[in-house]
Amino acid sequence: MNETLINPFNTLTHPTAVQTSFYAIASFARFDPSGRYIGAGKYDGSVSIWDLETRAQIRTLDGHVKAVTNLDWSRNSRFLLSSSKDWNVIIWDLAADWDPPQRYKTIRFDSPVLSASFHPRNSKIIVALMDTGDVYLVDLRKEHRSRVELVEVQEEGEEDSRQSDMTVVRFDPSGRYIFVGTSAGTILVFNTRTKVMIARHKISGAGVIKGLEFSRTGRRLVTNSSDRTLRQFNVPTYQTSKDGGACLEQELEPTHRFNDPINKTAWHSMAFSPNGEWLAGGAADTATHKIYIWDISNDGQFASALDGGREPLTHLHWHPFKSCMASTTRHGNILIWHSPSPERWGAFAGGFEEVDENVEYEEKENEFDIEDEAEIQRRKMKAEEEEVDLDAVPDDPAQFSTRLSVPRDDEDFTWADKEPDDDSPWKMRIIMENDDT
Amino acid sequence: MKDEALASASSSQQSALFYPRLSLNGHTRSISSLKFSPDGSTLASSGADRVIKLWDAYTGEILRTLSGHDQGISDIAWSSDGEFLASASDDKTIKIWSMDKGVEVKTLTGHTNFVFAVNYNPHSNLLVSGGFDETVRVWDVARGTCLKVLPAHSDPVTSVSFNHDGTLIVSCAMDGLIRIWDVDSGQCLKTLVDDDNPICSHVEFSPNSKFVLVSTQDSTIRLWNYQTSRCVKTYSSHVNRTYCLFSCFSHSKHKYIVSGSEDHKAYIWDLQTRQVLQTLEGHRDVVLAVATHPTKDIIATSSMEKDLAIRLWFGKDDVVTQKTQ
């Protein structure tokens, strides 16, 4: 709502400066889909939730006994998933009235959990990566209750070769596919419904795949790998499960490669801006806190390097719709980056309009004519006849739709919508802090 | 002159929209503010007698009296879940009351003079207040701390409120300026001013936040499109020269504007045609506070010192439904 007033000419920009920092003792921090909260995972096993408006910690979730490895929010932020090295994944229900919030579900595995995430359309479906290199798809729905290991189909003639470890796992934004990165430098694609591997992409020269991120639309994918390069790919279209057929073997050629040619630093994490115009990479530098920004809309040109001080960066996440990022330092501080808008002193003067370019003033023919006041009044009243609409909310350009169109007859989509979760829009209850504490 | 002719013509044509239904007695001094709870079940009132009273909005029964302020109260506001009520007082504090427990849970101190206006944001994690120290302050509700002090105006701030998504604040003051602020950065984004610079009494965003409704002490209420800085509607024929009178939108399917008046009446205008639909008569002093029910056609009005009864006016349809209950 404030966007059109702050940025009337709608210039695109990326974050450039630190706005504030939270002393959270966090190992990573992620925005929720509404962009109002930040969830921070800690080494001691707790999770804290921060309100970006009041810049205060509003909830603490104590459930794990070892470090939290990943967090994921459901679409309406009601459920929060935390994975931990203590072999557990906990789903929290934040709509509970009390603090600490209610534990909605605990899923126990047989080894430390490196990451876990919700299905983008149904938070009853979860994918989890173990530190043994295995990936499980857990379905908590009554009809479909299951825990299935995703298994890589071996290439022909290599039956006896050792399976490569899975190192990273992500749902694509539609939830239709699961993308898995491996230690052998390949990306495996599984159909979420059938759990069958449908494609294997070799990324030549990548080494171990360390990270995978999608752009909001799901059309582009960026990988982080042990060769210290970020690669951007266009995501190919896959056959639907109806067509059946063998597993697609295809080498993917990156559209762009991003690296630091001088310092040759590796990357800890990367993030697309919500509109997909920018890519941010968090450098794994041991002495500085550096974020590199590339301009994707301008053929991937390097745009800027942001300096966040001396505490090394461990994690980076982009706000769901604003020009704002959260980066976490090794000391556990969360830095919130924004693009400051210059103070417009003209706004303090009534009736002052800023224009985007110089306008040559031309005196109108009738400018100094004396008009009949009654006539002016009549015209003003006439103009006021026009109907006003007080209820229709104008489209906020900042919050473009995140919902992807769903082909209704495609079973791979409709399957996930059966037995929907209870993630309806809700409000975080305000808990008054006691004055004594 | 022309407007008055229009007004009398229309009121004679149409039958009354609202009927007096209930009269709530209890306050001992001027009543400063009236607010319906978000679910519409309760009406809260505050006054110069330093207390807040809660009434059943349908029966008029008194539910509770909250006391604790050392000076008169100028404004009250409900949190969006109806669990808390904030009050702004001449004792320079804002107090937050828990409706559940019926007690004061927090006192916000920081204003250096009378606090005159207060409002919650839609998520109810922030409060905005304005007062005679000419500042607008943003507060963290849960912790009771002041997050921002905006040196907003050069005269007492008479009204402040958030827009529907909580990203903007609008404030107005006796300096005649209406300013729009960015909540996140605290920057001033826009200033609206009428040619004659009249003192502003009250301001609020329209439900979709595209417009602001401003009452000024030249006996006029204006609806501004703040993006284009254009006044799109003017409502007049009431009297407003001295006091900060409230004005508000209806929330039912009938679209109208309601305001108090210094001629001891309350006025109802049609939103689009700007004609007076009805005047509510009965009060024996300046009608200061008005409030509209969040879902039904119910209006609450109250006035100053000489008439300490709050009146509830029910729409035609709601009179019937109430009788059957």
Q: Class of the domain at 28-248 in chain B in CATH?
A: Mainly Beta
Proportion of strand residues of chain B:
over 45%
Overall number of structural domains of chain A: 1
How many separate helices of chain B? 2
Helix content of chain A: under 10%
* Low-pLDDT segments, ≥5 res of chain A: 397-402
Q: So what's the CATH class of chain A? A: Mainly Beta
Number of helices of chain A: 3
Q: Mind summarizing the main beta sheet of chain B?
A: 4 strands, antiparallel
Give the overall silhouette of chain B: globular
Characterize the overall form of chain A.
Answer: globular
Overall strand count of chain B: 28
How much of the sequence of chain A is in beta strands?
35-45%
Helix content of chain B: under 10%
- Measure the end-to-end span of chain B: 44 Å
Quick one: how many beta strands of chain A?
29
Biggest interface, and residues per chain?
A-B, 43 and 57 residues
Low-confidence stretches of chain B: 1-13
Which CATH architecture of the domain at 28-248 in chain B?
7 Propeller
SS content category of chain A: mainly beta
GO molecular function (chain B): histone binding
WD repeats (chain B): 24-65, 66-107, 108-149, 150-191, 203-234, 256-279
InterPro entries (chain B): Beta-prop_WDR5-like, WD40/YVTN_repeat-like_dom_sf, WD40_PAC1, WD40_repeat_CS, WD40_repeat_dom_sf, WD40_rpt
Keywords (chain B): Repeat, WD repeat
